[in-house]
Sequence to fold (321 residues):
Amino acid sequence: MPHILTHYIVMDLLLNKEEKNRQAALVGAQGPDPFYYYGIGDLVKKHNEDEVRDFGHLLHHHDIAPIISFMVEYMNNQKNDWSYLVLKQYIKGFLLHYCIDRNTHPYIFYRTGFTTGRDMNSAKYNWFHAVFECHLDVLFRKRYNIHNFNPKTCLALSNKQLKTISLMYYHLARQLFPTATYITRHTFYQSVKCMKRVNSFLYSPTGVKKRHFEKHNFFTLKNALCHPLKVDDDNKVDYLNNSHSIWKDPTSGQEHDSSFIDMIEEAKKEYKEMIPILEFKQPELIKHYALKFSKSIDHDGKPLKSTKYYFDVFYKDDFPL
Fold:
């Protein structure tokens, strides 16, 4: 993704503290990730849970240019200033999410692996990925001297604002993904509520929950997504790649030595280059600028329809099959 806190911190640092509707940008910084949480923790199973979660996956791996273009044009067509300003802030965060993902994901996938024709154990690689990103969160938080955080802060937004954004996703699905009829006016709204509930449940400010999960639920996403108070193996793993060790682009095999902090700085630079699109009014100019910026690179940081090949997993111990 990376995980919830890294996206939040970067967006928070880029926003003016007095900026109106800044919380919409902070929620926007989570990008399409809320869809992954749809229905989790509900007492009654929702219809189309799997399809909605797959929709989050689709947005991450679809050409981002038409998605950004739709959002900006939809924002411009709002009849009242309040909706326009809420959506503008949300899209601002969404753009940052994409910039962070496409700059950091090649490194993260190289260090955490992915399924291949020879190894289809998705649970293993999902666990590697979640642990790695969660540890990145903790170390990134430490870098900015943020001792505690509450997921409720990261995802705090009024129901009215959330429903305004959720309505945009409903129309986006209707126009760009007409078969996704399971995306309703309230799907994104409900997804954010689920994301907030799940991360609040996993929040372990004293470390008690984390110790319990490590003892009883070690190889589960529940444990992987629960932030530890500190990262004990960083001297061995070097999650942030502060040593500038060589890693390969999973798709091309091209070698890099950039650190995670270098990648975040590049993401911030790209974000600032992309922000002017929010002021464009002509649809053709919006589409041209979005396409020029995206270069047909998805959230994984790889060209559309390309395949990942190269990885070297950080976790060297045995993993239960």
Q: What stands out?
A: The chain has a mean pLDDT of 95.
